[in-house]
Amino acid sequence: MASLTTDSAGPSDGRAGGAPGSSDRAAELVALAEELLTRRHGATVRLAGAEDLGGSERSLVVRVRVTENPFSLPRTLVVKHYLDEPAVHGADRFSYEAASCQLLTAMPSEERASPMLVAQDPTHRLLVLEDLGRCATLADRLDERDPKAAERALLGWARALGRMQASTAGREDDFGALLRRFGERTWRDPLADDARAALAEVPDQLAQLLRVEAAPAAVAEARGAARLLGGSGYRAFSPAEIRPDNCLVTGSGSRFLDFEWACFRDVALTGASLRLPLPSGGPAHAQPPGMAEAMVAAWQAELTPVWADLADPEVLRERLLHAEVLWVWLATRALLPGVVGAEEAERPPHVVVADPGHDAPSVLSALWRRLGTDAERAGRVATAELAAATVGALGRHGGDVVLPPYPAFA
After folding, report:
1. Per-residue pLDDT at 55
2. How many CA atoms lie within 13 A of 33 on its CB side?
3. How far is the CA of 38 from the CAs of 8, 34, 42, 47, in angstroms?
4. 56 phi and psi angles, rounded to 5 deg
5. What Å distances lie between residue 5 and 160, 185, 283, CA to CA?
6. Residue-level pLDDT at 2
7. What is the pTM (predicted TM-score) of this model?
């Protein structure tokens, strides 16, 4: 599980697959990109053949051909145009993505797990990016009928996440400096406030909506997880939207797309998300037995050269359990009202778990069931008992339906 934007309708850079967009908007976007590249290079650049790659209600993403190129520009590029206005309060999506792309572009090519940033224009909220080509996404691999290919793609994805986090350790000040160039005077993880709200509100939600009482010890164990939201010594870059359709499976390995809510946070929040149902723009699925553990091990192996103590199973298990609690409580705050038919609370735009539609009861049950298993293994009796009670109560609201496996593993 990961934090996601609700309007993510599919891959937002790097491959075909979006619905046809407005030809007028696409033509305007091409003109803006030509102007930006011409201004940047000091000579005329012409683009043609805008191909819609999807995006969202608030952004337009196209692939273009470079038809007039006095320099060494690639034959094709991807252009992303933010259609919304800059945020007046809170984090601005364009600033975060532009700063993220600049941070990752500055890294050696062998360590870069993203498209290279070619040019950016804050005034017109425009990004010109390397075109990674017509690659399959991780979601495509999971939908195909090749379990070996899907397993390789999942493990490669996990390794790429770990490698990216290891290579960005200690770069948080650089990220902050880049954000300030885009007008963000201060920054924080957009997840932090919602996580703290979940820790405060979920006990009452469980009591009122499911008639489940959270024991004081379980609440205390959960609130101890808040330490991951501060300045721990394990912070690294997180793309935030680590859903399978935002990952391209290229010949050079996994490449991540969409950094609208990217930030620096404790790496355990990434590792724990690999153990839970993966976010999706469609129906939710379960991972095959043992896959979550294999993915965490692949991710962990890339981190231990930087944080040697994470090689200790006890240290890693404690940190991942804290992170898992945060994700499960966040998901509960966001989805539980809709599951039981109560008036649904406003869902933060960057907190979505899998598909919040008809799958929500099963997703919540799967989350709490996994948390209960991991808490029991770690000797967290109160959390394990709360998880069991919650799973039982969710069963009365459709949570007894087990998530199906991905087609690749069916």
Report:
1. 67
2. 31
3. 31, 6, 6, 11
4. -160, -175
5. 22, 23, 17
6. 36
7. 0.89
For residues 27 and 50, the answer to whether their CB atoms sit within 8 Å is yes
User: Considering only CA atoms, which of 106, 89, 83 is closest in space to residue 183?
Assistant: 89
Contact indicator for 274, 291 with CB cutoff of 8 Å: no
Which amino acid, one-letter code, is at 54? G
Q: Residue 340 contacts by C-beta under 8 Å, 6 or more apart in sequence?
A: 209, 210, 397
DSSP string, 257-272: ---TT-EEEETHHHHH
* pLDDT of amino acid 25: 86
Low-confidence ranges of the chain (pLDDT < 70): 1-22, 55, 88-90, 343-358
Coil vs helix vs strand at 332: helix
**How many Cα atoms within 13 Å fall on the side-chain side of residue 83?**
14
- pLDDT value for 20: 42
HEC string of 170-221? CCHHHHHHHHHHCCCCCCCCCCHHHHHHHHHHHHHHHHHHHCCCCCHHHHHH
Structure token digits, residue 356: 């919040």
Distances (CA, A) of 36 to 43, 46, 64, 97: 11, 11, 14, 18
Q: CA–CA separation, 198 vs 194, rounded Å?
A: 6
Burial of 163 (0-12, 13-18, 19+ CB in 10 A): buried
CB burial readout 326-352, b (16+ within 10 A) else e: bbbbbbbbbbbbbbbeeeeeebbbbbb
CA max distance for the chain: 68
Q: Distance between CA atoms of 366 and 347, rounded to whole angstroms?
A: 20
Question: What backbone phi and psi angles, to 5 degrees, belong to 60?
Answer: -125, 130
What single letter denotes the amino acid at residue 60? Answer: L
